[in-house]
Automatic annotation (TrEMBL):
Lineage: Bacteria, Pseudomonadati, Pseudomonadota, Betaproteobacteria, Burkholderiales
Natural source organism: Herbaspirillum frisingense
Residue span(s) of domain Solute-binding protein family 3/N-terminal: 41-261
Domain of life where this protein originates: Bacteria
Keywords: Signal, Transport
Annotated protein name in UniProt: Polar amino acid transport system substrate-binding protein
Length: 279
């Protein structure tokens, strides 16, 4: 080491930094899994206004929901505590990219475009992306919306699906689901593009004012997201998800939030699926 130190002094400060990265490659790229285990918490980003995925409990005001419970279960598999962080749809990817969260569990649909920015775990559920219309609108099929105005969460997969499937429609992006739905309720748009689990409550609670049109814009594989290149963390979470699937824990959480005893009553037809098979 004495000879190495003398040699580095001759190289100068700029070369010193390069040489240090070469000599100590582990320091050049921090291991997120090791950081999580060292601090004892998994910072998990979820939505905070989308029932039953993530929304404030009326009694405690704590954010609860299926996505939050998934985060807590994954944290237990990693041997740490879960720290919930509320994000909007638009802020999901930046939260990972900028290191503000370790994991995103926020209705995160897989797309090839997003896979260039973050890494996805296996898909733990898949849902149809639907269109909600006013019941007396006379709009019955997806094709009936070909040249209409459609609202959606900005930067969401429903927005992308509406633009792709209905290229002649006018698609308006809103900051969150309640605002996108309000545009429909006020007659500013003809339909709302939304994942079915999120849309069911609007239909069920509308006393017949709103309904789904027949058919779906697309089927959306939903997964958890981690920062690009964190292979050990991704592998550990995928291992945890496989154990949860085998033990029936994902089904139990789904039943709690979406099952027949809830107002949603949506079956979990598609089980844990490797993301590679969906590309």
């Amino acid at each position: 080491m004495k000879m190495i130190s003398q040699h580095l002094k001759k190289l100068g400060m700029g070369s010193l930094l390069l040489a240090s990265a070469w000599l100590f490659p582990a320091a050049a790229h921090a291991d997120r899994l090791a950081e999580i285990q060292a601090r004892g918490t998994l910072v998990c980003a979820t939505l905070a206004n989308n029932e039953p995925l993530g929304y404030p409990d009326p009694q405690t005001r704590q954010v609860v929901g299926f996505d939050v419970d998934m985060c807590a279960a994954v944290a237990r598999k990693l041997g740490v505590q879960m720290q919930q962080k509320s994000v909007t749809v638009e802020a999901r990817l930046p939260a990972l990219i900028h290191g503000e969260a370790d994991l995103v569990s926020a209705a995160l649909g897989y797309t090839r475009e997003r896979a260039h920015q973050i890494d996805f775990t296996a898909s733990h559920y898949q849902n149809p992306i639907k269109l909600i219309v006013q019941s007396d609108s006379g709009l019955n099929l997806v094709s009936d919306l070909a040249d209409k105005r459609i609202s959606a969460n900005r930067s969401s997969t429903p927005e992308q699906a509406a633009r792709r499937v209905l290229p002649k429609a006018t698609v308006l992006g809103f900051v969150d689901t309640p605002q996108a739905f309000l545009a429909l309720a006020q007659g500013k748009v003809d339909a709302l593009a939304i994942s079915m689990p999120s849309g069911v409550r609007f239909v069920n609670e509308s006393t017949g004012r709103f309904r789904f049109v027949e058919g779906a814009l697309a089927w959306e594989p939903t997964a958890l997201g981690v920062k690009k290149g964190e292979r050990r963390l991704l592998a550990a979470i995928n291992q945890g998800l496989m154990e949860m699937e085998k033990e029936g824990e994902i089904d139990a959480l789904w039943s709690r939030w979406f099952g027949p005893k809830t107002k949603f009553n949506i079956p979990r037809d598609k089980k844990l699926t490797p993301i590679a098979s969906l590309r």
